[in-house]
């Protein structure tokens, strides 16, 4: 089959999830026909393995492998096996991984919540080390507690610590430390701090029915933005409440162009190139 013309890249989707069991092949074929490539992101060992299997089968799909912070309590992070997955040529990122303070256990127990934060940070550092080892970007899940930016503050601190460690030991690994902050829900200050550390921020179709992130989208340089769907979650306004799919990335690109009041085709091309560069995706 000839290589397709890639017009969009969904930087974060989960087409390996059970929500697509009935029509996965049709969804992936429609992605191809619409020129939509996708990075299929793992959240645990099973979904990471399935992401790799899909990427092996379809030239317009790629994979990311990792353990979501919310799964920290239910699955051991097998670093040796994750290293094997990370070495696969179609694995283009490590993640999703990161910090999630939105659903911390033991809301009545400060000790339990703080202990979970420590465990999440330890798990994230393992992903960070793997990303540096394989010179691959991170896909980071970061969700603060309600009404706060606490998880972003801690994430920025962890990344700055890694940078300081490199500077103090005259290493160059920080130069390879990069990635995307998936489903960004922070403000302009957090986005700028993460951009300064070499990370892009990405937006989903939530921007088609909410205006909470318009200021960030307008302020952050277009070169520091990516687009994603997080499918099967968060369908665009025209399909609100339904299962989402990677084709919604077209709606996200269109909405970003409208928010920024810029030429839609120029925005599409820049966002496409941003994703290709970050994840080192070969052109046909």
Question: Which helices and strands appear, and what pairs or packs with what?
Answer:
Blueprint: E1 8-13, H1 24-33, E2 36-41, H2 45-57, E3 61-65, H3 79-86, E4 91-100, H4 110-134, E5 138-143, H5 150-169, H6 173-176, E6 179-182, H7 188-196, E7 199-203, H8 214-219, E8 225-227, H9 249-260, H10 264-279
Parallel strand pairs: 1-2, 2-3, 3-4, 4-5, 5-6, 6-7, 7-8
Q: Any key phrases for this structure?
A:
284 residues; alpha/beta; TIM Barrel; eight-stranded parallel beta sheet; 10 helices; globular; hydrolase; DNase_TatD-rel_CS; TatD-like
Describe it.
- With 284 residues, this protein is of the alpha/beta class.
- The protein has one domain (8-279): Metal-dependent hydrolases (TIM Barrel), CATH 3.20.20.140.
- The protein contains 10 helices and 8 strands.
- Strands 1-2-3-4-5-6-7-8 form an 8-stranded parallel β-sheet, sandwiched between helices.
- Strand 7, helix 8 and strand 8 (225-227) form a beta-alpha-beta unit.
- Helix 9 (249-260) packs across helix 10 (264-279).
- The longest helix is centred in the middle third of the chain and has 25 residues, at 110-134.
- The two termini are 12 Å apart.
- The model has no long low-confidence stretch (mean pLDDT 93).
For this structure, what is the CATH class? Answer: Alpha Beta
Q: Name the beta content range.
A: 15-25%
| Count of individual domains | 1
What would you say the CATH architecture is? Alpha-Beta Barrel
Biggest sheet statistics: 8 strands, parallel
Mean pLDDT: 93
* Helicity level: 40-55%
**What is Rg?**
18 Å
SSE-based structural type:
alpha/beta
* Overall spatial form: globular
User: Within the largest sheet, what's the order of strands?
Assistant: 1-2-3-4-5-6-7-8
Low-confidence stretches are none
Q: Would you identify the CATH H-level superfamily?
A: Metal-dependent hydrolases
Task: Specify the number of helices.
Answer: 10
Order of helices and strands: EHEHEHEHEHHEHEHEHH
Number of strands: 8
Keywords: Hydrolase, Metal-binding
Binding site for a divalent metal cation 2: 141, 182
Organism: Candidatus Kaiserbacteria bacterium CG10_big_fil_rev_8_21_14_0_10_56_12
GO molecular function, one term: hydrolase activity, acting on ester bonds
